[in-house]
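Minutes, structural biology subgroup

Action item carried over from last meeting: produce the structure token record for Exodeoxyribonuclease III (Cystobacter ferrugineus). EB confirmed the sequence was re-checked against the source entry. Recorded below for completeness.
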Amino acid sequence: MRIVSWNVNGLRSAHKKGFLDWLAAEKADVVGVQEVRAREEQLPEEVRQPEGWRVAHIVSAKRPGYSGVGLFSRKTPDDVVSVLGVEEMDTEGRLQVARFGRLTVVNCYFPNGNGKERDNSRVPFKLAFYRRLFDFLEKGLRDGERIVVVGDFNTAHQEIDLARPKDNRETSGFLLEERQEFCRWLRAGWVDTFRHFEKGGGHYSWWSQRFGVRERNVGWRLDYALASPGAMPYVKRAAIHPHVLGSDHCPVSVDLDPKVRR
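Output recorded by EB:
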């Protein structure tokens, strides 16, 4: 069973760049996308109902052209929840919690800490969102439930997770308090599936759109698939797919034994 996550940087834009061709070719069972930046009715019908997939489940932000997440699945989820119970967070359209049998897939677009002036003014909101979702999932984690959290976490966890750590210590995405919050998740038992298999550097999932940056692989690893201890026995591999174009992010994936749902 393959779960894929991709920040598409605008689903309508990604559609024009071949998103549906990629989706058709991708051997995935569940695909979570972030930064949809559109209401469901603004998406072309072929995106809302792609061949071979169940109707896309879209959660939009109240603010037009902002944030938003979407879920494509081969089988209809048993249940989907898209709120944390905090209005200022829920109006930003950042969350889908979908249950497939005994497996729960969380598709999430974590906030960026940058304010309008790129002044780190949204860092407190970002950390509050992290903590609220952590608390939301904590009981399931403790009870041994099979949970996979995928999405754009907007944080590079360690120096190995970005090309220029020394230049970005004051930049949201690599601030000490953001990294410490990510560490808190791992200490609680969540497993960074990619790092479980790959210890080396040079693996990134986001690159600035400035000319030549992606070609030189001057990137950040901001997109993750975290597995609960209950899900980890079923995890077979995890990967980053930098060859997939169409966004400033690339997809990341995690493969699990299909028995995880039973």
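Discussion: The chain is about 25% helix and 25% strand.
Next step: EB to file the record with the rest of the batch.
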